[in-house]
Every structure is written in C-alpha cells, then in structure tokens.
Design brief:
Elements (H helix, E strand, L loop, with lengths): L1 E7 L4 H4 L13 H16 L6 E4 L3 H14 L6 E3 L16 H8 L1 H9 L36 H21 L3 E6 L1 H12 L3 H4 L10 E5 L5 E6 H4 L1
Parallel strand pairs: 1-4, 2-3, 2-4
Antiparallel strand pairs: 1-5, 5-6
Helix pairs in contact: 2-3, 4-5, 6-7
The chain binds 3-phosphoglyceric acid (3PG).
The site of 3-phosphoglyceric acid (3PG) has 9 residues, from α7.
Amino acid sequence: MKKLILLRHGQSIWNLENRFTGWHDVDLSDQGRTEAVAAGQLMADAGLKPDIAYTSVLTRAIRTAFMGLDSLGRLWIPLIKDWRLNERHYGALTGLNKAETAEQYGDEQVHIWRRSFATPPPPLDRDDARHPCNDPRYAGLDPASLPATESLEDTLDRVLPYWQSQLAPALADCSTMLIAAHGNSLRALVKHLEGLSDEAITGVEIATGDPLVYELDDGLSVERKYSLRERS
Ligand SMILES: O=C(O)[C@H](O)COP(=O)(O)O
C-alpha cells in the first residue's frame, strides 16, 4: 500500500488579506507558519514517514514543506520543486481583494472565476509585470507554456502530465510521498485521483495546513482518504 499526503500551504499573507494570489510569490503569515509546524506534528502523530517530497516554486508552499518536514524530523528527504505544482494562475485578478472584486463584478461572477472548472479569469497582458514571462524563475521554460491566466481545467492540463511523468512513477518506487502545494493545483490532483466530474470538483475545498492522506493500492487506485486534522 502507498501513502500520498497532499498538503496545502499554511495561511499566506495574501490569504490573510483576502487577495487573489495565484502565481504571486507571497510568504506565509505567522498563522501559516504555525499551521506548517502543526501539519508536521500531525504527520508524526499518525506515524507517517514520507520518503520523498514535492512542492511548487512558490515560497509559501516551499516553506510549508520545509517547516512541516522539519517538525516531522525528516528535513533530510529529497525535496523537488516544480512550477507545474504552482497555484492556478489568477490572471488579471492577481493582487485584487476578493471581497472588493465581488462588490464590483457580483458574487456570481467571482464564484465562476474561483470555482468553475473551465472559465478562466481575464488574462494578463504579456508586458504586465505580473506575467510569468517577466519573472526570472521561469526564464528556462518555453514562454508558450507560461499562462496569462488559468481555469482549473488549464491547471489540470499542466498538473496531470507532471503526475503521469514524475509523481506517479516516483510514488511507485517509494512508500510515502508528500506533496506540499496549493488549493487549486491540489484540487486538480484530487479530481484525477478520485475520478470526480467537472461538476463535482467545483464543491471541493482544501483547507490550509491540513494533511490529506490517500491510501493507494499498487496500481495507484484510491482505497481510503482522510484528513489528519479531522482525525486528531
Ligand atoms: O490563489 C489564491 O488566491 C488562493 O490561494 C486560492 O484561491 P481560491 O480560494 O480563490 O481558489
């Protein structure tokens, strides 16, 4: 049996300020740091021993992985960072306050942008400083693969090939894997792992700092799923 732990980063400073974040690189808030340490303790209490960990190239997820693994006593395991685990790109909404945006465009439109499967927020212009083409961390990538905005479907379209080419083969070779990532890159993975419909995934929320454990058979089919915070 394999164990896959999906961990959304702890609360970020922009989560606290209720701002659309996406690929903007904001750090954890004090509460987020506490959540990251607590996530490691929950994993320790559950006897989980990740052999390998993956995260995005965004500080809030990297720091959550580090702080969680540190409190678990397993800071020494391999930690691989990849942009394909980044949060979904929030396009021209990046940086805006979510409540103010709902006042301007209406709750329904904001809900569609946030939770519909296929409707992306308005895109960024390529010369906008928030466009990933203007961020040196993506300089080595084909500019055509860098998004100006993303729906959850677009996010799944980059997460799934990464799952298939890197994560699933690595999981087949180990017993326990930790993925510290983001609300929507993890929702994309959950959709795939659980075989959820485009409609069903719209109702799935993932809390910050709460390790979700999937027990998988050797063919990587899900046998059981539970939240460590709920079980504690
Ligand atoms: O990118 C963000 O703003 C959040 O981390 C996730 O946002 P959401 O709850 O609107 O999907």
